[in-house]
Design a protein that fits this description.
Blueprint lengths: L9 H16 L2 H20 L7 E3 H6 L4 H10 L1 E5 L4 H17 L2 H4 L7 E2 L2 E2 L5 E2 L5 H8 L1 H11 L5 E2 L2 E2 L2 E5 L6 E2 L10 E5 L5 H4 L1 H6 L1 H4 L32 E6 L10 E3 L6 H7 L19 E2 L2 H4 L7 E2 L8 E5 L4 E3 L11 E3 L4 E2 L1 H16 L26 H6 L3
Helix pairs in contact: 2-12
């Protein structure tokens, strides 16, 4: 895992970078006015589109028969639900297996982190996001041939070769082991406000990110392609508790229970090109010189009413999902989790992104392989290491050839 050295004075670094970008840019106010006009039209288009969160059938991906119009929709919207990625009974068995794994190892009795579940008005000792990484169900899902097929399909939307270089291999997976969510019926879900992950202040300050967004910062925002992989695999974030050591083409999760709109589910702003708006908004005169519209190192990049009011009306809920469906969104896509409570349904998922093979991802995956063997938490997450002594944890014998390669083993 590599990181970039944090500036000694963040406010000074932000002010200096903003001056440099404005000088490099030219008419930043005029360009933002153009981006804003485009954004408003696109927001109106999202509001008028009942299918703004595209739904793709896994069987069509497997057979290579996804209609071109649907492919175009995924590219435009930067998100997708893949129905039937796994059989419902498979996902439900994974859910049962995870519950048994937690019970058998007395997670409730050993958990020492913050509790965020509220049930029947009483504070519970249970989280909703569980720092568990190495259960057999998680390993089985990550290395499953259907997951490999879906990730390959998603990676195909990206330009993996540009600027005279090959940036990643869209046909090879690496592991980015993440956690699980278990939200019992009746739990209060306080949600998450709109944000993007994988970099906050870095998107302006780091030279590699300036290369990623070179067209925007050079005054040619219309040439910006959010699907161009150029330089993204060279970004190393500042050290923090929310940093990501891998390049993820898509963030994603696998549904282990039925979830419906209104249950406190994921919402996205289905406009991957909206990053041009976010970047240019911070360079406008009404934003303080040492401020990037509220971006703070160590936190996700916030998108809020004060500076981004044009974007938020486009927030779109995922469609209803069933166990075995997978949900995906482009790594730059603005997303949130709505407040919501449902008395009847669980809200359980395994977080599994798409992280194709490249030197950056392979190096992190190899570190994760060592953590897997020890039962330790992966490097991007707090070293809670609950699973070190757990029974029923996945072992080398549970890895197939894909799983071994994903973890650099």
């Amino acid at each position: 895992m590599t990181t970039t050295e944090l500036p000694a004075n963040m406010s000074e670094a932000i002010s200096r970078t903003k001056r440099e970008l404005r000088a490099r840019f030219g008419d930043v106010a005029g360009a933002f006015a153009e981006v804003r006009e485009w954004t408003r039209r696109e927001v109106d288009a999202v509001a008028a589109d009942p299918d703004a969160f595209p739904v793709v059938q896994f069987r069509d991906i497997a057979e290579g028969t996804v209609p071109q119009g649907l492919r175009d929709a995924v590219r435009r919207r930067g998100c997708a639900v893949v129905k039937g990625t796994f059989a419902r009974e498979t996902a439900e068995a994974w859910d049962t297996g995870l519950a048994a794994y937690l019970t058998e190892n007395d997670f409730a009795g050993t958990y020492q982190g913050p509790a965020d579940d509220v049930f029947a008005g009483l504070a519970s000792s249970q989280p909703q996001i569980y720092p568990v990484y190495w259960s057999k169900p998680q390993i089985e899902a990550r290395q499953h041939e259907h997951m490999v097929t879906v990730r390959r399909f998603l990676n195909s939307f990206w330009r993996h070769e540009s600027e005279g270089r090959v940036w990643f291999d869209p046909d090879r997976d690496t592991a980015y082991p993440d956690r699980i969510r278990r939200r019992p019926p009746g739990s209060a879900s306080l949600g998450l406000s709109a944000h993007t992950d994988s970099g906050s202040v870095e998107r302006w300050l780091l030279p590699a990110y300036q290369q990623v967004f070179r067209h925007v910062f050079d005054g040619n925002w219309r040439a910006y392609d959010p699907w161009d992989g150029a330089y993204r695999t060279e970004v190393d974030e500042y050290p923090s508790t929310v940093m990501c050591s891998a390049f993820r083409t898509f963030q994603g999760w696998t549904a282990l229970s039925e979830m419906r709109q209104g249950d406190g589910v994921l919402h996205v702003v289905p406009m991957p090109s909206a990053m041009a708006y976010v970047l240019l908004r911070a360079l406008q005169d009404d934003v303080p010189e040492d401020d990037l519209c509220g971006a703070v190192n160590g936190q996700a990049l916030p998108v809020g009413d004060k500076y981004h009011d044009d974007l938020l009306p486009a927030q779109t809920s995922i469609p209803d999902v069933e166990p075995g469906d997978t949900v995906w969104w482009h790594g730059d896509v603005i997303h949130s989790v709505a407040d919501g409570t449902n008395p009847n349904r669980w809200g359980n998922v395994m977080y599994i992104p798409a992280s194709p093979h490249c030197p950056k991802n392979a190096a992190y995956a190899k570190n994760c392989g060592r953590a897997f063997l020890a039962g330790a938490s992966p490097g991007d997450f707090a070293p809670e290491d609950y699973e070190v002594g757990w029974t029923g944890r996945a072992t080398l014998d549970d890895l197939n050839a894909v799983g071994r390669e994903q973890l650099g083993l």
